[in-house]
């Protein structure tokens, strides 16, 4: 296996973990299955860091990686939050805000690329958002409810703040839209 393929293989692995993760949580209120799902989610989350790190370190950033890596992250996190709502482990309104922000920022990224080729890199609030979302999901699945709820609301704060930050920095795209 060529080392330049490893980051993309890690990204594909993260995508393949999603149906396994969802299936485990589909069996209902089994704390054992929740913990197994949390471990799978944690492994998948680690690949998020690892694939980007290796691609940059080895200078093997690819168009596939630029597309699939953020998509895999969003699919994994959004699937987890939707399952947590179904299990009554996360409030639907919090998850709705998180999902709406993810979709809005994804749309903004597409608009930026289309209008000028600009790539919207993840700023520190966005990185904190991702980190706190992933830990909230893991804590909730381990049934560490207080820690999970606190982390979930920290994630909500950084989700909203980072979304605002991205749109504020790209406000020039919308100047004159509502005259």
Tell me the CATH topology: Four Helix Bundle (Hemerythrin (Met), subunit A)
Q: Looking at the structure, what is the overall shape?
A: globular
What is the string of helix and strand elements?
A: HHHHHH
> Major β-sheet, in short?
none
Radius of gyration: 17 Å
InterPro entries: CDP-alcohol_PTase-I, CDP-OH_P_trans, CDP-OH_PTrfase_TM_dom, CDP_ALCOHOL_P_TRANSF_CS, Phosphatidylglycerol_P_synth
Function: This protein catalyzes the committed step to the synthesis of the acidic phospholipids.
Pfam families: CDP-OH_P_transf
Family: Belongs to the CDP-alcohol phosphatidyltransferase class-I family.
Topology summary:
Blueprint: H1 6-25, H2 31-57, H3 63-86, H4 92-116, H5 124-141, H6 145-169
Function: This protein catalyzes the committed step to the synthesis of the acidic phospholipids.
Pfam family, one: CDP-OH_P_transf
Catalytic activity: a CDP-1,2-diacyl-sn-glycerol + sn-glycerol 3-phosphate = a 1,2-diacyl-sn-glycero-3-phospho-(1'-sn-glycero-3'-phosphate) + CMP + H(+)
């Amino acid at each position: 296996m060529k080392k330049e393929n490893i980051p993309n293989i890690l990204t594909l692995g993260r995508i393949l973990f999603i149906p396994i993760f969802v299936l485990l949580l589909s069996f209902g209120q089994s704390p054992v299955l929740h913990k197994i799902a949390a471990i799978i989610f944690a492994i998948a989350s680690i690949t998020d860091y690892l694939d980007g790190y290796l691609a940059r370190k080895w200078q093997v950033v690819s168009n596939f990686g630029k597309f699939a890596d953020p998509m895999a992250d969003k699919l994994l996190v959004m699937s987890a939050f939707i399952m947590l709502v179904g299990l009554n482990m996360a409030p639907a309104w919090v998850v709705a805000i998180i999902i709406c922000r993810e979709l809005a920022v994804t749309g903004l990224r597409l608009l930026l690329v289309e209008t000028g080729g600009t790539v919207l890199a993840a700023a520190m609030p966005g990185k904190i958002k991702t980190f706190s979302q992933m830990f909230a999901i893991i804590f909730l699945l381990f049934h560490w409810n207080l820690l999970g709820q606190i982390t979930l609301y920290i994630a909500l704060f950084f989700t909203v703040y980072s979304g605002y930050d991205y749109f504020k920095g790209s406000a020039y795209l919308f100047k004159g839209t509502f005259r």
